[in-house]
């Protein structure tokens, strides 16, 4: 099971969103706006910025973030946008 990192909690708070561990087996987060589920984001088989930060340190996390943004620069959907905001 995915443990929500303090980085992700802070990003959700800044965005005015509520998050909970996802009920979908392959997703990390269920994202809520105004008490309503808007999306399930983050593939559990991949790490995210907060996880890298905790396990590998800031330098590695920053590099992984940079590479993530390069790979996902053309994501325009809601799920991709929320993943970028909350997880990276």
Structure, explained:
The protein has one domain (6-87). It is 48% helix and 22% strand. The chain has 4 helices and 3 strands; from the N terminus they run H-E-E-E-H-H-H.
How are the secondary structure elements laid out?
Layout: H1 6-15, E1 18-21, E2 27-33, E3 36-43, H2 49-56, H3 58-71, H4 78-87
Helix pairs in contact: 2-3
How many strands in all? 3
Helix content: 40-55%
**By helix and strand content, what is the structural category?**
alpha+beta
Work out the strand percent: 15-25%
Evaluate the radius of gyration: 12 Å
The number of domains: 1
Largest sheet: 3 strands, antiparallel
Biggest sheet strand order reads 1-2-3
Q: Segments where pLDDT lies below 50 for 5+ residues? A: none
Helix and strand string, N-terminal first? Answer: HEEEHHH
**N-end to C-end Cα span:** 19 Å
Morphology: globular
- What's the pLDDT, averaged over the residues? 96
Counting DSSP H or I runs of 4 or more residues, the number of helices is: 4
Short structural description:
This protein is α+β, with helices and mostly antiparallel strands and 88 residues long.
Notable characteristics:
single chain, 88 residues, alpha+beta, 3-stranded antiparallel β-sheet, 4 helices, 48% helix
